[in-house]
Specification:
mainly alpha
Amino acid sequence: MYRRKLVQRVMGACAITVLAVVPLVTGCTVMASQDQVRKVEEAKMKAAESEADLSACKEKRAQLERDLAQQKQALAKLENDIKAVKKGLESWAGDGGAE
């Protein structure tokens, strides 16, 4: 019984030690490798290009929204003109038409 608890404690201590030492041995270096630096620079360039594309898309959208507003105004004016013509035709037809 005592021996079993001792083995469990030793195994637990070994597991904790391994978990603490493995990252120190295998990972974390002081300097990044050239490949890592190159990948970061490429990612930065792609991010800048994407931001430029986003900006261009936003400008295009704003222009399209302005164009749409102008087209809606023109449509409203033409609809009013159509109503005025119809009203004029109705009043002209109501007066007896051509004399």
